[in-house]
Amino acid sequence: MTTLIRNVRPYGEDPTDLAVDDDGRLVARLDDPDEVVDGDGLIALPGLVDLHTHLREPGGEEAETVATGSAAAALGGYTAVFAMPNTNPTQDSPVVVEHVWRRGREVGLVDVHPVGAVTVGLGGERLAEMGMMAASAAGVRMFSDDGRCVNDPLIMRRALEYARSLDAVVAQHAEDHRLTVGAQAHEGPVAARLGLTGWPASAEESIVARDAMLAAAAGARLHVCHLSTAGSVAVLRWARETLLPGTGARVSAEVTPHHLLLTDTAAEDYDPVHKVNPPLRPEADTLALRRALADGVVDCVATDHAPHAVEAKDCEWPQARPGMLGLQTALSVVASTMVATGLLDWRGVARVCSEVPAAIAGLADQGRPLAAGEPANLVLVDPDARWTVRGAELASIADNTPYEGMELPASVIHTMLRGRWTARDGKVGV
Ligand SMILES: NC(=O)N[C@@H](CC(=O)O)C(=O)O
Ligand SMILES: [Zn+2]
Ligand SMILES: [Zn+2]
Predict the structure, then answer these.
(1) Which member of 102, 163, 377, 401 has the greatest number of CB atoms within 10 A?
(2) Which pLDDT does position 144 carry in this prediction?
(3) In the chain, pLDDT over 90 holds for what percent of residues?
Protein backbone atom coordinates (compact mmCIF):
# COMPACT_ATOMS: atom_id res chain seq x y z
CA MET A 1 0.00 0.00 0.00
CA THR A 2 1.45 3.37 -1.05
CA THR A 3 -0.09 6.66 0.06
CA LEU A 4 0.21 10.23 -1.12
CA ILE A 5 -0.93 12.79 1.44
CA ARG A 6 -1.46 16.09 -0.31
CA ASN A 7 -1.22 19.55 1.21
CA VAL A 8 -0.01 19.12 4.78
CA ARG A 9 2.13 21.54 6.77
CA PRO A 10 5.10 19.77 8.42
CA TYR A 11 5.68 21.35 11.86
CA GLY A 12 3.06 23.99 10.95
CA GLU A 13 5.32 25.37 8.22
CA ASP A 14 4.94 25.59 4.42
CA PRO A 15 2.47 23.21 2.73
CA THR A 16 3.82 20.17 0.91
CA ASP A 17 2.90 16.56 0.04
CA LEU A 18 4.07 13.49 1.97
CA ALA A 19 4.59 10.24 0.07
CA VAL A 20 4.67 6.84 1.82
CA ASP A 21 5.96 3.70 0.10
CA ASP A 22 4.85 0.14 0.78
CA ASP A 23 7.69 -0.40 3.25
CA GLY A 24 6.07 2.25 5.46
CA ARG A 25 8.73 4.87 4.75
CA LEU A 26 8.54 8.44 3.60
CA VAL A 27 9.89 8.84 0.07
CA ALA A 28 10.62 11.84 -2.12
CA ARG A 29 8.07 10.85 -4.79
CA LEU A 30 5.58 8.19 -5.79
CA ASP A 31 4.57 7.50 -9.36
CA ASP A 32 1.27 5.72 -8.98
CA PRO A 33 0.04 5.87 -5.36
CA ASP A 34 -2.60 3.32 -4.25
CA GLU A 35 -4.26 6.00 -2.17
CA VAL A 36 -4.37 9.80 -2.37
CA VAL A 37 -5.47 11.63 0.77
CA ASP A 38 -6.33 15.32 1.00
CA GLY A 39 -4.31 16.65 3.94
CA ASP A 40 -6.49 19.79 4.09
CA GLY A 41 -3.60 21.97 5.25
CA LEU A 42 -3.37 20.02 8.52
CA ILE A 43 -0.19 20.21 10.57
CA ALA A 44 2.02 17.11 10.25
CA LEU A 45 4.18 16.09 13.19
CA PRO A 46 6.19 12.95 13.87
CA GLY A 47 4.01 10.44 15.74
CA LEU A 48 3.90 11.25 19.45
CA VAL A 49 5.83 9.14 21.98
CA ASP A 50 4.55 8.70 25.53
CA LEU A 51 7.10 7.65 28.13
CA HIS A 52 4.44 7.13 30.81
CA THR A 53 1.22 5.21 30.10
CA HIS A 54 -0.75 2.87 32.35
CA LEU A 55 -2.39 0.24 30.14
CA ARG A 56 -3.53 -1.80 33.20
CA GLU A 57 -3.17 -5.19 31.50
CA PRO A 58 -2.59 -7.68 33.07
CA GLY A 59 -4.77 -7.39 36.15
CA GLY A 60 -6.67 -4.11 35.76
CA GLU A 61 -8.80 -4.88 32.72
CA GLU A 62 -11.87 -3.31 34.32
CA ALA A 63 -10.20 0.08 33.68
CA GLU A 64 -8.12 -0.44 30.50
CA THR A 65 -6.60 -3.12 28.29
CA VAL A 66 -3.75 -3.09 25.82
CA ALA A 67 -6.42 -2.94 23.08
CA THR A 68 -8.45 -0.03 24.47
CA GLY A 69 -5.39 1.89 25.63
CA SER A 70 -3.77 1.42 22.21
CA ALA A 71 -6.92 2.82 20.58
CA ALA A 72 -6.77 5.85 22.90
CA ALA A 73 -3.10 6.27 22.01
CA ALA A 74 -3.73 6.15 18.26
CA LEU A 75 -6.61 8.64 18.57
CA GLY A 76 -4.35 10.89 20.65
CA GLY A 77 -1.69 10.91 17.92
CA TYR A 78 0.73 8.48 19.58
CA THR A 79 2.79 5.93 17.66
CA ALA A 80 4.72 4.59 20.69
CA VAL A 81 3.83 4.29 24.37
CA PHE A 82 5.71 2.99 27.38
CA ALA A 83 3.49 0.79 29.53
CA MET A 84 4.12 1.21 33.26
CA PRO A 85 4.81 -1.89 35.35
CA ASN A 86 2.29 -1.47 38.19
CA THR A 87 0.17 -4.26 36.75
CA ASN A 88 -0.96 -7.47 38.43
CA PRO A 89 1.17 -9.52 38.11
CA THR A 90 3.82 -6.80 38.14
CA GLN A 91 5.93 -6.33 35.00
CA ASP A 92 9.01 -7.50 36.88
CA SER A 93 9.98 -10.59 34.88
CA PRO A 94 10.60 -11.52 31.23
CA VAL A 95 7.36 -13.48 30.99
CA VAL A 96 5.14 -10.55 31.98
CA VAL A 97 6.92 -7.90 29.89
CA GLU A 98 6.87 -10.24 26.89
CA HIS A 99 3.14 -10.77 27.34
CA VAL A 100 2.46 -7.02 27.27
CA TRP A 101 4.81 -6.52 24.34
CA ARG A 102 3.10 -9.33 22.36
CA ARG A 103 -0.37 -7.98 23.11
CA GLY A 104 0.78 -4.60 21.81
CA ARG A 105 1.98 -6.20 18.58
CA GLU A 106 -1.24 -8.20 18.14
CA VAL A 107 -3.37 -5.08 18.56
CA GLY A 108 -1.02 -3.20 16.24
CA LEU A 109 -2.32 0.35 16.81
CA VAL A 110 0.76 1.71 18.58
CA ASP A 111 4.19 0.37 19.52
CA VAL A 112 3.80 -0.81 23.13
CA HIS A 113 7.08 -0.87 25.04
CA PRO A 114 6.73 -2.38 28.50
CA VAL A 115 8.63 -0.65 31.29
CA GLY A 116 10.26 -3.16 33.63
CA ALA A 117 9.95 -2.90 37.41
CA VAL A 118 13.10 -1.94 39.31
CA THR A 119 12.23 -4.13 42.28
CA VAL A 120 10.32 -7.39 42.65
CA GLY A 121 6.59 -6.63 42.95
CA LEU A 122 7.44 -2.90 43.27
CA GLY A 123 8.30 -3.90 46.83
CA GLY A 124 11.38 -1.68 46.99
CA GLU A 125 13.50 -4.43 48.56
CA ARG A 126 14.97 -6.76 45.94
CA LEU A 127 16.10 -5.79 42.46
CA ALA A 128 14.02 -7.36 39.70
CA GLU A 129 15.59 -9.33 36.84
CA MET A 130 16.55 -6.21 34.94
CA GLY A 131 19.06 -7.97 32.70
CA MET A 132 16.61 -10.73 31.81
CA MET A 133 13.92 -8.21 30.91
CA ALA A 134 16.44 -6.30 28.81
CA ALA A 135 17.39 -9.53 27.01
CA SER A 136 13.76 -10.62 26.50
CA ALA A 137 11.82 -10.18 23.26
CA ALA A 138 10.43 -6.97 24.77
CA GLY A 139 13.97 -5.51 24.85
CA VAL A 140 13.25 -3.44 27.97
CA ARG A 141 15.39 -0.31 28.22
CA MET A 142 13.38 1.64 30.79
CA PHE A 143 12.87 0.54 34.38
CA SER A 144 10.62 2.11 37.00
CA ASP A 145 8.71 1.30 40.16
CA ASP A 146 6.17 3.96 39.16
CA GLY A 147 3.36 4.30 41.65
CA ARG A 148 6.02 3.61 44.27
CA CYS A 149 9.31 5.48 44.70
CA VAL A 150 12.50 3.45 45.06
CA ASN A 151 13.06 4.97 48.48
CA ASP A 152 16.06 2.91 49.65
CA PRO A 153 19.14 4.78 48.39
CA LEU A 154 21.24 1.62 48.22
CA ILE A 155 18.67 -0.14 46.01
CA MET A 156 18.43 2.96 43.86
CA ARG A 157 22.19 3.13 43.56
CA ARG A 158 22.39 -0.51 42.47
CA ALA A 159 19.52 -0.05 40.00
CA LEU A 160 21.31 2.91 38.39
CA GLU A 161 24.54 0.89 38.15
CA TYR A 162 22.79 -2.06 36.51
CA ALA A 163 20.90 0.25 34.20
CA ARG A 164 24.15 1.84 33.07
CA SER A 165 25.58 -1.55 32.12
CA LEU A 166 22.38 -2.33 30.18
CA ASP A 167 22.34 1.12 28.51
CA ALA A 168 18.95 1.58 30.14
CA VAL A 169 17.31 4.41 32.03
CA VAL A 170 15.74 4.35 35.50
CA ALA A 171 12.52 6.37 35.64
CA GLN A 172 11.79 7.41 39.18
CA HIS A 173 8.46 8.33 40.73
CA ALA A 174 10.01 10.94 43.06
CA GLU A 175 8.12 10.76 46.34
CA ASP A 176 9.61 10.25 49.77
CA HIS A 177 6.85 8.09 51.18
CA ARG A 178 7.83 9.02 54.75
CA LEU A 179 6.69 12.56 53.95
CA THR A 180 3.42 11.62 52.26
CA VAL A 181 1.77 9.25 54.75
CA GLY A 182 -1.97 9.68 54.21
CA ALA A 183 -1.37 12.58 51.80
CA GLN A 184 -4.33 13.56 49.60
CA ALA A 185 -3.57 16.90 47.96
CA HIS A 186 -0.76 19.46 47.63
CA GLU A 187 0.30 20.70 51.10
CA GLY A 188 -0.79 24.34 51.21
CA PRO A 189 -3.70 26.63 52.02
CA VAL A 190 -6.19 24.89 49.70
CA ALA A 191 -5.67 21.44 51.26
CA ALA A 192 -5.69 22.98 54.75
CA ARG A 193 -9.05 24.66 54.08
CA LEU A 194 -10.51 21.47 52.59
CA GLY A 195 -9.25 19.34 55.47
CA LEU A 196 -7.16 17.11 53.20
CA THR A 197 -3.79 15.81 54.43
CA GLY A 198 -0.99 17.60 52.58
CA TRP A 199 1.60 16.19 50.13
CA PRO A 200 4.59 18.53 50.54
CA ALA A 201 6.64 19.68 47.55
CA SER A 202 9.76 18.66 49.48
CA ALA A 203 8.73 14.99 49.27
CA GLU A 204 9.40 15.22 45.53
CA GLU A 205 12.26 17.71 45.49
CA SER A 206 14.40 15.86 48.05
CA ILE A 207 14.23 12.65 46.00
CA VAL A 208 15.01 14.47 42.74
CA ALA A 209 18.13 15.94 44.40
CA ARG A 210 19.17 12.63 45.95
CA ASP A 211 18.65 10.69 42.74
CA ALA A 212 20.58 13.23 40.67
CA MET A 213 23.51 12.72 43.06
CA LEU A 214 23.22 8.93 42.84
CA ALA A 215 23.03 9.11 39.03
CA ALA A 216 26.08 11.38 38.92
CA ALA A 217 28.05 8.99 41.11
CA ALA A 218 27.04 6.01 38.97
CA GLY A 219 27.48 7.81 35.64
CA ALA A 220 23.98 6.57 34.87
CA ARG A 221 20.78 7.77 33.23
CA LEU A 222 17.94 8.91 35.43
CA HIS A 223 14.53 10.06 34.23
CA VAL A 224 12.25 11.90 36.64
CA CYS A 225 8.60 10.97 36.18
CA HIS A 226 5.78 13.56 36.34
CA LEU A 227 7.88 16.42 37.77
CA SER A 228 5.44 18.80 39.46
CA THR A 229 7.01 21.67 41.38
CA ALA A 230 9.05 24.82 40.71
CA GLY A 231 11.51 23.57 43.33
CA SER A 232 12.11 20.36 41.33
CA VAL A 233 12.82 22.51 38.26
CA ALA A 234 15.41 24.45 40.29
CA VAL A 235 17.04 21.23 41.49
CA LEU A 236 17.16 19.93 37.93
CA ARG A 237 18.70 23.15 36.65
CA TRP A 238 21.32 23.03 39.39
CA ALA A 239 22.11 19.37 38.68
CA ARG A 240 22.55 20.06 34.96
CA GLU A 241 24.79 23.07 35.54
CA THR A 242 26.83 21.99 38.54
CA LEU A 243 26.57 18.34 39.40
CA LEU A 244 26.41 16.35 36.17
CA PRO A 245 29.05 17.81 33.84
CA GLY A 246 31.95 15.39 33.48
CA THR A 247 30.20 12.49 35.22
CA GLY A 248 28.77 10.79 32.11
CA ALA A 249 25.39 10.83 33.86
CA ARG A 250 22.22 12.16 32.25
CA VAL A 251 19.11 13.32 34.07
CA SER A 252 15.93 13.93 32.10
CA ALA A 253 12.45 14.82 33.27
CA GLU A 254 8.88 14.78 32.05
CA VAL A 255 5.86 16.91 32.91
CA THR A 256 2.26 15.80 32.50
CA PRO A 257 -0.36 17.82 30.62
CA HIS A 258 -2.47 18.05 33.78
CA HIS A 259 0.38 19.63 35.75
CA LEU A 260 0.69 22.22 32.98
CA LEU A 261 -3.00 23.15 33.03
CA LEU A 262 -4.74 22.32 36.30
CA THR A 263 -4.06 23.63 39.81
CA ASP A 264 -4.70 22.47 43.35
CA THR A 265 -7.90 24.53 43.55
CA ALA A 266 -9.51 21.83 41.35
CA ALA A 267 -9.90 19.80 44.57
CA GLU A 268 -12.40 22.36 45.89
CA ASP A 269 -15.25 20.34 44.38
CA TYR A 270 -14.05 17.23 46.28
CA ASP A 271 -14.44 15.32 43.02
CA PRO A 272 -11.76 12.57 43.10
CA VAL A 273 -11.39 12.89 39.33
CA HIS A 274 -8.91 15.61 40.35
CA LYS A 275 -6.98 13.32 42.68
CA VAL A 276 -3.62 12.40 41.19
CA ASN A 277 -0.10 11.57 42.23
CA PRO A 278 1.85 13.81 42.45
CA PRO A 279 -1.02 16.16 43.31
CA LEU A 280 -2.09 19.19 41.31
CA ARG A 281 0.01 22.11 42.51
CA PRO A 282 -0.55 25.88 42.88
CA GLU A 283 -0.55 28.11 39.80
CA ALA A 284 3.02 29.33 40.39
CA ASP A 285 4.21 25.74 39.89
CA THR A 286 2.22 25.22 36.67
CA LEU A 287 3.67 28.45 35.26
CA ALA A 288 7.21 27.43 36.25
CA LEU A 289 6.68 24.02 34.61
CA ARG A 290 5.51 25.65 31.36
CA ARG A 291 8.56 27.89 31.28
CA ALA A 292 10.88 24.97 32.09
CA LEU A 293 9.37 22.91 29.27
CA ALA A 294 9.81 25.80 26.84
CA ASP A 295 13.43 26.31 27.98
CA GLY A 296 14.30 22.60 27.79
CA VAL A 297 15.00 22.23 31.52
CA VAL A 298 12.06 19.84 31.59
CA ASP A 299 12.71 17.65 28.58
CA CYS A 300 9.36 16.33 27.50
CA VAL A 301 5.65 15.77 28.03
CA ALA A 302 4.40 12.38 29.24
CA THR A 303 0.74 11.68 29.90
CA ASP A 304 0.73 9.47 33.01
CA HIS A 305 -2.50 8.18 31.47
CA ALA A 306 -4.00 6.43 34.52
CA PRO A 307 -7.43 4.89 33.92
CA HIS A 308 -9.44 3.86 36.97
CA ALA A 309 -12.69 1.92 37.21
CA VAL A 310 -15.80 3.80 38.35
CA GLU A 311 -15.72 2.32 41.86
CA ALA A 312 -12.14 3.55 42.35
CA LYS A 313 -13.18 7.14 41.62
CA ASP A 314 -16.89 7.34 42.46
CA CYS A 315 -16.29 7.47 46.21
CA GLU A 316 -15.07 9.84 48.90
CA TRP A 317 -11.83 11.69 48.12
CA PRO A 318 -9.59 9.89 50.67
CA GLN A 319 -10.70 6.43 49.45
CA ALA A 320 -10.32 7.25 45.73
CA ARG A 321 -7.35 6.04 43.71
CA PRO A 322 -5.07 8.71 42.24
CA GLY A 323 -4.72 9.14 38.48
CA MET A 324 -6.42 10.56 35.39
CA LEU A 325 -6.85 9.75 31.70
CA GLY A 326 -4.47 11.58 29.39
CA LEU A 327 -3.74 9.99 26.01
CA GLN A 328 -6.54 11.56 23.99
CA THR A 329 -6.30 15.03 25.54
CA ALA A 330 -2.53 15.50 25.82
CA LEU A 331 -1.89 17.25 22.52
CA SER A 332 -4.83 19.60 23.05
CA VAL A 333 -3.65 20.50 26.55
CA VAL A 334 -0.15 21.16 25.21
CA ALA A 335 -1.68 23.33 22.46
CA SER A 336 -3.63 25.26 25.05
CA THR A 337 -0.85 25.73 27.62
CA MET A 338 2.23 25.97 25.38
CA VAL A 339 1.22 26.94 21.81
CA ALA A 340 -1.65 29.36 22.49
CA THR A 341 0.54 31.08 25.09
CA GLY A 342 3.40 31.51 22.60
CA LEU A 343 5.80 29.40 24.68
CA LEU A 344 6.27 26.76 21.94
CA ASP A 345 5.64 26.62 18.21
CA TRP A 346 4.67 23.34 16.54
CA ARG A 347 8.32 22.46 15.97
CA GLY A 348 8.69 22.77 19.72
CA VAL A 349 5.68 20.51 20.22
CA ALA A 350 7.30 17.89 17.97
CA ARG A 351 10.42 18.16 20.11
CA VAL A 352 8.79 17.73 23.53
CA CYS A 353 6.06 15.25 22.53
CA SER A 354 7.99 13.06 20.07
CA GLU A 355 11.68 13.66 19.34
CA VAL A 356 13.00 14.06 22.88
CA PRO A 357 10.98 11.24 24.46
CA ALA A 358 12.06 8.91 21.63
CA ALA A 359 15.68 9.85 22.29
CA ILE A 360 15.38 9.38 26.07
CA ALA A 361 13.98 5.89 25.51
CA GLY A 362 16.49 5.07 22.79
CA LEU A 363 13.90 4.41 20.06
CA ALA A 364 15.65 4.55 16.70
CA ASP A 365 12.48 4.57 14.56
CA GLN A 366 10.34 7.15 16.40
CA GLY A 367 10.60 10.90 16.77
CA ARG A 368 12.36 11.07 13.41
CA PRO A 369 12.30 14.00 10.96
CA LEU A 370 9.49 14.13 8.39
CA ALA A 371 11.94 13.44 5.58
CA ALA A 372 12.50 10.92 2.78
CA GLY A 373 13.96 7.65 4.04
CA GLU A 374 12.45 7.98 7.51
CA PRO A 375 9.70 5.71 8.90
CA ALA A 376 6.19 7.05 8.20
CA ASN A 377 5.17 7.52 11.83
CA LEU A 378 3.13 10.68 11.89
CA VAL A 379 0.14 12.56 13.19
CA LEU A 380 -1.98 15.11 11.34
CA VAL A 381 -3.47 17.81 13.55
CA ASP A 382 -6.11 20.48 12.97
CA PRO A 383 -4.78 23.39 15.06
CA ASP A 384 -7.94 25.48 14.61
CA ALA A 385 -10.48 22.87 15.69
CA ARG A 386 -12.03 23.05 19.12
CA TRP A 387 -13.69 20.10 20.80
CA THR A 388 -15.48 19.36 24.05
CA VAL A 389 -14.11 16.51 26.14
CA ARG A 390 -16.60 13.77 27.11
CA GLY A 391 -15.13 10.92 29.12
CA ALA A 392 -17.80 8.51 27.89
CA GLU A 393 -16.73 9.15 24.28
CA LEU A 394 -13.03 8.42 24.85
CA ALA A 395 -11.67 5.03 23.77
CA SER A 396 -10.58 4.02 27.27
CA ILE A 397 -12.79 1.72 29.31
CA ALA A 398 -12.51 4.14 32.23
CA ASP A 399 -13.84 7.67 31.87
CA ASN A 400 -11.90 9.54 34.59
CA THR A 401 -10.92 12.61 32.59
CA PRO A 402 -10.38 15.81 34.58
CA TYR A 403 -11.35 17.81 31.46
CA GLU A 404 -14.99 16.63 31.30
CA GLY A 405 -17.07 19.28 29.52
CA MET A 406 -14.04 21.46 28.87
CA GLU A 407 -13.53 22.90 25.38
CA LEU A 408 -9.94 22.37 24.19
CA PRO A 409 -8.06 23.57 21.10
CA ALA A 410 -6.52 21.38 18.39
CA SER A 411 -7.74 17.96 17.22
CA VAL A 412 -5.84 14.88 16.14
CA ILE A 413 -7.39 13.92 12.79
CA HIS A 414 -5.20 11.09 11.46
CA THR A 415 -2.35 8.98 12.86
CA MET A 416 -0.06 6.74 10.82
CA LEU A 417 2.23 3.98 12.13
CA ARG A 418 4.84 2.71 9.66
CA GLY A 419 2.67 3.66 6.70
CA ARG A 420 -0.62 2.26 8.05
CA TRP A 421 -3.45 4.45 9.33
CA THR A 422 -4.12 3.75 13.00
CA ALA A 423 -6.55 6.67 13.30
CA ARG A 424 -8.49 8.12 10.40
CA ASP A 425 -10.84 11.11 10.67
CA GLY A 426 -10.79 10.74 14.45
CA LYS A 427 -11.75 7.04 14.33
CA VAL A 428 -9.58 4.03 15.11
CA GLY A 429 -7.94 2.29 12.15
CA VAL A 430 -8.63 2.74 8.46
N1 LIG B 1 -0.38 9.00 38.75
C2 LIG B 1 -1.28 8.44 39.53
O3 LIG B 1 -1.95 9.16 40.28
N4 LIG B 1 -1.50 7.13 39.53
C5 LIG B 1 -0.77 6.14 38.80
C6 LIG B 1 0.54 5.79 39.44
C7 LIG B 1 1.60 6.85 39.30
O8 LIG B 1 1.86 7.37 38.21
O9 LIG B 1 2.26 7.15 40.28
C10 LIG B 1 -1.63 4.91 38.67
O11 LIG B 1 -1.13 3.84 38.35
O12 LIG B 1 -2.86 5.04 38.82
ZN1 LIG C 1 4.09 7.91 39.48
ZN1 LIG D 1 2.24 6.69 36.47
Answers:
(1) 377
(2) 99
(3) 100
ipTM > 0.90, yes or no = yes
Tell me how far the alpha carbon of residue 267 lies from the centroid of ligand 2, in angstroms.
Answer: 19
Alpha carbons 19 and 32: distance in angstroms, whole number: 11
Whether 360 and 300 have beta carbons less than 8 Å apart is answered as: yes
The kind and range of the H/E element at 295 are helix 283-295
Is the distance from the beta carbon of residue 173 to the nearest atom of ligand 1 less than 6 Å? yes
Ligand 1 atom closest to the CA of 52, numbered from 1? 8
Give the separation between CA 343 and CA 163, rounded to whole angstroms: 34
Give buried/exposed letters for 337-362 (b at 16+ CB in 10 A, else e): bbbeeebbebebbbbbbbbbbbbbbe
Q: Whose CA is nearest to atom 6 of ligand 1?
A: 147
| 55 appears as a binding residue in the annotation | yes
- Segment 147-151 shows an average pLDDT of 97
Query: What confidence category does residue 430 fall into, taking pLDDT thresholds of 50, 70 and 90?
Result: low
User: Does the beta carbon of 254 sit less than 6 angstroms from any atom of ligand 1?
Assistant: no
Decide whether any atom of ligand 1 lies within 6 Å of the 402 Cβ: no
Q: Does the pLDDT at position 127 exceed 80? A: yes
Q: In one letter, which amino acid is 121?
A: G
Do residues 414 and 423 make contact, with C-beta atoms less than 8 angstroms apart? yes
Homologous superfamily assigned to 47-364+386-406: Metal-dependent hydrolases (3.20.20.140)
The beta-carbon contacts of 13-17 under 8 Å, at least 24 apart in sequence, are: 13/346, 13/347, 15/41
52 annotated ligand binder: yes
pTM over 0.80: yes
In eight-state DSSP terms, residue 31 is S
304 is catalytic: yes
pLDDT tens for each residue of 291-346: 999 999 999 999 999 999 999 999 999 999 999 999 999 999 999 999 999 999 99
Where exactly are the structural domains of the chain? 47-364+386-406
**What ligand has the least distance to the C-alpha of 277?**
1
Q: How deeply is 373 buried, as exposed, middle or buried, from its count of CB atoms within 10 A (0-12, 13-18, 19+)?
A: exposed
Best probe residue, ligand 1, of 86, 150, 273 (max atoms within 8 Å of C-beta): 86
